[in-house]
UniProtKB/TrEMBL annotation:
It comes from Microbacterium deminutum. This is Uncharacterized protein.
Length: 74
């Protein structure tokens, strides 16, 4: 699923949090919202991590969010 598709499904406060905290570890509630927004198929959204590690976004998603934050066309 393309990033813009699930991004549009997120509540605006979650999008703002992701912009403000881009590249950081994700709180559980944000992970849950992303999983819901992707229809339960977030395979390309999250970076590969150890099972006990907090989730992070994949590099390509971090780059996409940075572009959105900078007002660039994506």
């Amino acid at each position: 699923m393309e990033t813009w598709v699930w991004w549009e499904r997120l509540p605006p406060p979650t999008r703002e949090w992701l912009i403000d905290h881009n590249g950081e570890y994700l709180p559980a509630d944000v992970v849950d919202e992303i999983v819901d927004a992707t229809g339960g198929k977030p395979e390309e959204v999250f970076a590969v991590s150890e099972p006990d590690e907090p989730r992070r976004l994949a590099d390509k998603v971090v780059d996409w969010i940075e572009a959105v934050a900078n007002g660039e066309s994506v």
